[in-house]
Amino acid sequence: MKAGESGMKIYIRLEGHDFKYEIEDVIRLFYGNEETSIEYQDPGEDNPGFVLYSGLESSLENDGQFVLKTMLEEGGSVKFTENETFSIHSADDEYEVKKIKKREVKRQLYKALSQYTARKMPWGVLTGIRPAKIVHELMEKGFNREQIYSRLTDYYYVSGKKAELLYNIAQKEKHILDGTGPDKVSIYIGIPFCPTRCLYCSFTSNSVKKYAPFIKNYIEALKKEIFGVGEILNAKGFKIQSIYMGGGTPTAIDAPYLEELLSFIEESFDMGQMKEYTLEAGRPDSINREKLEIIKKSKVNRISINPQSMNNEVLRNIGRLHTAEDIVEAFKLARDIGFDNINMDIIAGLPGEKLEGFKYTLEKIGELAPESITVHTMAIKRASRLNEEKDSYSLISENEVAKMVDNAYDFITKIGLEPYYLYRQKNMLGNLENIGYSKPGYECMYNIQIMEEKQTIIALGAGAVTKVVFPENNRIERIFNVKNVEEYVDRIEEMIDRKRSFIINC
């Protein structure tokens, strides 16, 4: 059966390795999740279907060299075959050796499927969410611009356009990453409540109306964790570079709780060296003058007002209770109160929004002139309502979402904003990316740090994940908070002890 047809079955034979996850990652680039089933077995010589063989063995002639063979057959006819030899330094540790082997298996399979389908992916063989890390690693090794560009396009098969974008973003990030010292950390504080759950959302988020009886106890538990983390910071001599309060939607909680929480944060943390403090005001149906004035009186110096779309029908489709007019009103209110660093998020590829509608969204956001705009590409997340109900929605084509992302780049750079960070997610339409744009000097430090993983980020709240970075050996350790709100409240001392016992002793 021809590739891309519904119900296609791929038989896979592996020899000398068991990199199933990597094999399936590349297959999904070309066929998605729903159109194929994968069988790890030999279908036999008489099989008329689609067979993939991937074999890896040590070279008999040279120690440290490996021979990789990939072959594709369809209906008994060979469509692709290639043998490649690659070397691994004897000094490489076991982890690095395995990483190189995985990468080479993915590269050759990508070449096979690209040739077979006559398709090229914009990000080539890259499937990770942090492609800029590759550029940073190459820069640290002394590679120049031309060498990095060549590595991205010739080795990873990234398109020239994406390679240029990635290099420029990495250069932007470098200015902030170079200021990261071993004593600097960032803080994430999660408020897992929203007015409603959006169609595409997979974050730890609960209806603020349904969970109203739990909010008081949640704030009290969060304050305990804030106080405990403040003690940890003092004990280790850590200085806060940035704070990011997200969710959920922090402004979904009532004004008195918001004021109480912001005041307690300032009492518990030494903010003497803090450069940035972001609060996601998020949805306009959660914002009013009282809340914005409370935020303005605090040390918050950056907020987000996130429309996602400026088309009312699309907003209704994705589960928003506000209108495009509410977005404009909330933005102007924030400006009136004195906020001079506002981010706005939009999504390319929302169900029901075509290219012309997306262009309209861009134009309306441009008229507001925020300091930064983040353009997300629609991703079908496993835990989202969209994934559960996807048969009820019509998603746009890969070509159209690619045009949206290109149009966003052209429009936003023309109005004076520059791309400064980038990340990717699984199951994104068109295998594309999310890009943050900002006016020069308004780049979000936290966004860069969370993506490039050069700095420890201590995360508080239900579902929050702390990342402790050990740059000397390129290692990251994670400390998890429980996701359930009630469980978080009941086990708050345990959440604090997890951080204290690990961070204090490391």
The N- to C-terminal Cα distance equals: 55 Å
Number of strands: 18
Low-confidence stretches: 1-6
Q: What's the pLDDT, averaged over the residues?
A: 90
> Roughly what fraction of the amino acids lie in strands?
15-25%
Look at the helices and sheets and give the structural class. Answer: alpha/beta
Helical amount: 40-55%
Strand order within the widest sheet? 14-15-13-12-11-10-9-6-16
Count the helices. How many?
A: 16
**What composes the largest sheet?**
9 strands, mixed
Shape: globular
- Cα Rg: 24 Å
Give a written overview of the molecule:
The chain is of the alpha/beta class. The chain contains 16 helices and 18 strands. The chain has helices at 20-31, 94-117, 132-140, 145-155, 160-177, 212-236, 255-268, 289-297, 312-317, 324-337, 355-368, 385-388, 398-414, 445-452, 485-490, 492-505, and strands spanning 8-15, 36-39, 50-58, 65-74, 77-87, 184-191, 193-194, 206-207, 239-247, 276-282, 302-305, 342-348, 372-377, 418-423, 434-438, 456-460, 465-470, 475-480. Helix 4 (145-155) packs across helix 5 and helix 11 packs parallel to helix 13. The longest helix is centred in the middle third of the chain and has 25 residues, at 212-236. Residues 1-6 have low confidence and may be disordered.
SSE arrangement:
Blueprint: E1 8-15, H1 20-31, E2 36-39, E3 50-58, E4 65-74, E5 77-87, H2 94-117, H3 132-140, H4 145-155, H5 160-177, E6 184-191, E7 193-194, E8 206-207, H6 212-236, E9 239-247, H7 255-268, E10 276-282, H8 289-297, E11 302-305, H9 312-317, H10 324-337, E12 342-348, H11 355-368, E13 372-377, H12 385-388, H13 398-414, E14 418-423, E15 434-438, H14 445-452, E16 456-460, E17 465-470, E18 475-480, H15 485-490, H16 492-505
Parallel strand pairs: 1-2, 1-3, 6-9, 6-16, 7-8, 9-10, 10-11, 11-12, 12-13
Antiparallel strand pairs: 3-4, 4-5, 13-15, 14-15, 17-18
Helix pairs in contact: 1-2, 3-5, 4-5, 6-7, 6-16, 7-8, 11-13
